[in-house]
């Protein structure tokens, strides 16, 4: 029998937690390949190496599979038994069956007995996979019972584990809506590892006493267990340890339903802070009650109130005597010409079309039934107090929030390079706008985000000028289009120390997915709001604040350093948490186009905002909203709660795989340089000092450190590639090379970069195709250089130099002209953008000036303040370079001249820039 080491070999590779599912799949496939070679090999020396390789892979997989229901611990004992006896041929057959079961996911639909070795059993997974393909998709079967796994935390022996597992298996009934299997772990650490590496876990039963330490030395938990130790936990009671574990599981995977089984004083335990447990069971409670309670909890998340109501409505016979001829498909089914719509879409989408708000349906404008319930479920899923569906995009969601919260002449602090909907929202609300400048990334023609010091400095200016009471809102984009993410909690905390009732609007259009990943979630608005509310209510915070205040009061309040160079803490007696987030659900989660949500965590919502919010919602929401979009938002929420953790994790894995190849492939590196953390976040905003999340030796192990501490981080699922070395600008590369030649679609480019975004639909095959395309393009650029003449090479070199060295500095916001400043002689910078916007409606107030012929420059040299009368928005970068009422600066003009894009909204090349006449600026109408 060969010498084995599986009983004593420690394994720490789960530190590569970010790629654990790929590691799992790849290792099983590699094991299958090694066993195939071993069975067919006659060379004894090579056989020894293969036996050792199989031993290592089995050891690795045993650790990973310890946290999964399939293959079970009993299955692994069977694998080791075959290995130890040297029955490699039989082991290969069993592993093949196991891999097929994992790939086809047949273990979700039926029991897979690995001890069976006959041919019929061996082919079951293949036949099952074929049946799934014939139904339409290998991983989805709407008629099958959805499958999940139940985690049981208890220090059980192996025989006891089997007893418990079998007891729950015996509870299954054909009429159950779901089917589940059981995963057992024996320690505090193992429970946390399980919820991190096994996305199938949807419920957790914490039972009796359990130790702290895992039997494995796993680094994946390093960032989650900071401050905890075995000593800390050994003095805790059973209930205290269980409650702490529950809170940590909730922080990692808040969607998991948790239950406590206690052998102690169940009544006393129930009186503690056990908010994360759905229910407490006493040890004598029978399994059937636990079984039904678990299934009911899962069903509560699986429900889709509006989608279910719409499906029921579509089955009802109705007589349609209202608007919409297409309702029930009547105008299509009776048509001799339009039948192709049914051929393409199917009949159900038309059966579900109606303008009725009765018959089991609901009104989006004033919901009382299934839409109301669906929005309540969305609030639960995204950690909000209230959530609202929006069927015409986040542009509208942004305007709704702004109109609900801002009155004319309220001051709003807003990042200048935000989405254009915010700028137009300021016009509609009549806000006085104070623009904040993001730090520039001149080498890549893009902006980062607004530094906290810049925000605090602006607030401090309003405080010293006596106008802080007029400042109502801070509006920031998180994350930016390019993937720069704020430290949301820190921004809110320090701003609230200066203005304790400040309202925050976080535009999270590109960040809806972030709430379903434990690394991303703390940098979301809703999570930060809840965390800060809990923090400010605690006695520990009051002690921290009192100590800080005593130290702060000893400093000079007129010294900027007092406010800007140290962290600030808000007064717990006056602070109010008021946070709003807007999500483009359709951009990063499942929803039809234009499906968006508004999420609210505002302690003053009921008292101050509910009525104006309703009016703003009525103002901007169609009286004929698309029910299909609402249904898709309902289903998208359910999917995010049930499998968001798994899907987002796979999305990040795909992005990390793409990055890893681009970091290490010599030819790809020559033409395509992936921007890393240090490229997009200057050192002064990287308190961790982490330059890149990836190291060729240690892998992806620095991400949590940066995300926990830094002012800004980069979302690794958004891959910005500098392409200046190709000599091709971003817009041309996007259209002529990626789209026209290979059908690859992207949204965002700058002058010398392109942005690739992974999402929850990105597959490993998609990544492979993109890498193949980039490699083909790199070879094409190599051949181009090799085959070019000397003059042609000079042309290429000049293009490369232009795209890598001759990049115009990105301009800051200049200033509002005094005609549009509420306090022209004051020290604060806000402007009345609405006044300027509508002043331009009268032709006599405006004129066109061209800058391509020097006309505008001559006016500026003569001393004239040239003031924009419109928004000027180049694509890319896609945000206003000029807004109504803004003075044109030399830097802005230089930037516009250097742009090599053809799409500039608000600029007509044949006429020039639309600007205000000098007469209009001398006599503007009162604001």
Automatic annotation (TrEMBL):
Domain Orn/Lys/Arg decarboxylases family 1 pyridoxal-P attachment site: 304-529, 580-764
Keywords: Aminotransferase, Lyase, Transferase
Top-level taxon: Bacteria
UniProt GO MF annotations: lyase activity
InterPro entries: LL-DAP_aminotransferase, Orn/Lys/Arg_deCO2ase_major_dom, PyrdxlP-dep_Trfase, PyrdxlP-dep_Trfase_major
UniProt-listed PANTHER family: AMINO ACID AMINOTRANSFERASE, BLR3474 PROTEIN
Record protein name field: Beta-eliminating lyase-related protein
């Amino acid at each position: 029998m060969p010498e084995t080491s599986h009983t004593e070999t420690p394994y720490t590779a789960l530190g590569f937690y970010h790629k654990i599912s790929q590691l799992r799949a790849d290792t099983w496939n590699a094991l299958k390949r090694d066993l195939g070679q071993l069975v067919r090999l006659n060379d004894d020396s090579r056989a020894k190496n293969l036996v050792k390789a199989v031993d290592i892979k089995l050891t690795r997989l045993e650790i990973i599979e310890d946290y999964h229901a399939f293959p079970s611990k009993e299955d692994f004992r069977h694998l080791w038994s075959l290995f130890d006896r040297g029955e490699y041929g039989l082991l290969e057959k069993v592993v093949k069956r196991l891999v097929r079961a994992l790939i086809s996911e047949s273990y979700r639909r039926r029991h897979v007995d690995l001890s069976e070795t006959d041919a019929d059993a061996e082919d079951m997974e293949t036949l099952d996979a074929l049946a799934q393909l014939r139904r339409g998709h290998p991983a989805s079967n709407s008629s099958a019972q959805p499958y999940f796994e139940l985690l049981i935390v208890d220090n059980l022996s192996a025989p006891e584990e089997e007893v418990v597992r079998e007891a729950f298996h015996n509870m299954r009934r054909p009429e159950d809506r779901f089917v589940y299997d059981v995963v057992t772990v024996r320690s505090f650490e193992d429970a946390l590892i399980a919820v991190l590496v096994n996305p199938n876990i949807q419920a957790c039963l914490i039972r009796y006493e359990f130790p702290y330490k895992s039997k494995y030395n796993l680094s994946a938990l390093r960032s989650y267990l900071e401050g905890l130790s075995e000593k800390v936990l050994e003095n805790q009671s059973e209930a205290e340890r269980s409650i702490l574990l529950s809170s940590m599981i909730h922080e990692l995977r808040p969607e998991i339903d948790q239950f406590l089984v206690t052998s102690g004083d169940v009544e006393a335990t129930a009186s503690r802070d056990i908010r994360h447990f759905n229910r407490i069971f006493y040890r004598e409670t029978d399994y059937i009650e636990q079984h039904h309670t678990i299934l009911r909890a899962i069903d509560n998340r699986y429900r889709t109130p509006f989608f279910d109501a719409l499906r029921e409505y579509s089955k009802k016979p109705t007589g349609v005597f209202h608007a919409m001829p297409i309702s029930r498909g009547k105008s299509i089914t009776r048509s001799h010409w339009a039948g192709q719509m049914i051929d393409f879409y199917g009949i159900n989408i038309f059966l579900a079309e109606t303008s009725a708000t009765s018959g089991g349906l609901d009104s989006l404008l004033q919901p009382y039934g299934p839409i109301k319930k669906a929005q309540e479920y969305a609030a639960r899923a995204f950690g909000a107090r209230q959530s609202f569906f929006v069927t015409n995009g986040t542009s509208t969601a942004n305007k709704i929030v702004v109109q609900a919260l801002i009155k004319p002449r309220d001051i709003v602090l807003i990042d200048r390079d935000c989405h254009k909907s915010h700028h137009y929202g300021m016009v509609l609300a009549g806000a006085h706008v104070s623009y904040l400048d993001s730090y520039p990334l001149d080498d890549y023609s893009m902006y980062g985000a607004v530094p906290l010091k810049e925000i605090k400095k602006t607030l401090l200016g309003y405080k010293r000028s006596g106008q802080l009471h007029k400042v109502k809102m801070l509006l920031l984009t998180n994350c930016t289009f390019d993937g720069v993410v704020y430290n949301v909690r820190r921004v809110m905390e320090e701003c609230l120390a200066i203005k304790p009732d400040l309202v925050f609007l976080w535009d999270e259009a590109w960040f809806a997915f972030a709430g379903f990943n434990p690394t991303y979630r703390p940098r979301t608005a809703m999570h930060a709001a809840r965390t800060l509310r809990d923090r400010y209510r605690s006695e520990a915070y009051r002690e921290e604040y009192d100590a800080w205040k005593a130290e702060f009061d000893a400093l000079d309040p007129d010294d900027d350093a007092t406010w800007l160079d140290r962290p600030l803490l808000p007064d717990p007696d006056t602070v109010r948490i008021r946070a709003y987030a807007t999500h483009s659900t359709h951009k990063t989660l499942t929803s039809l186009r234009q499906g968006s949500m508004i999420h609210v965590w505002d302690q003053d919502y009921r008292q101050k905002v509910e009525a104006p919010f309703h009016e703003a919602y009525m103002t901007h929401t169609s009286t004929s909203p698309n029910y299909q979009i609402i249904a898709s938002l309902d289903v998208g929420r359910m999917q995010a709660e049930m499998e968001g953790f798994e899907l987002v994790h796979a999305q990040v894995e795909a992005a990390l795989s793409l990055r890893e190849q681009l970091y290490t492939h010599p030819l790809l590196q020559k033409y395509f340089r992936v921007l890393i953390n240090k490229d997009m976040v200057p050192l002064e905003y990287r308190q961790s000092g982490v330059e890149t999340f990836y190291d060729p030796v240690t892998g992806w192990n620095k991400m949590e450190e940066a995300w926990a501490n830094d002012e800004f981080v980069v979302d690794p699922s958004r891959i910005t590639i500098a392409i200046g070395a190709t000599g091709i600008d971003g817009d041309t590369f996007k259209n002529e090379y990626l789209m026209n030649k290979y059908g690859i679609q992207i949204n965002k480019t700058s002058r010398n970069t392109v942005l690739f975004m992974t999402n929850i639909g990105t597959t490993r095959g998609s990544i492979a195709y993109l890498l193949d395309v980039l490699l083909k393009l790199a070879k094409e650029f190599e051949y181009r250089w090799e085959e070019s003449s000397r003059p042609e090479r000079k042309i290429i070199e000049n293009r490369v130099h232009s795209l890598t060295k001759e990049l115009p500095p990105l301009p800051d916001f200049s200033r509002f002209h005094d005609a549009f400043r509420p306090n022209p002689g004051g020290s604060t910078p806000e402007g009345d953008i609405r006044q300027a916007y509508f002043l331009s409606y009268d032709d006599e107030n405006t004129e066109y000036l061209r800058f391509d012929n020097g006309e505008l420059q001559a006016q500026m040299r003569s001393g004239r303040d040239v003031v924009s009368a419109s928004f000027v928005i180049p694509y890319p970068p896609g945000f206003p370079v000029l807004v109504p009422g803004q003075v044109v600066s030399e830097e802005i003009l230089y930037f516009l001249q250097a742009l090599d894009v053809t799409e500039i909204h608000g600029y007509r090349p044949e006429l020039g820039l639309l600007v205000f006449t000098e007469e209009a600026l001398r006599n503007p109408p009162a604001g």
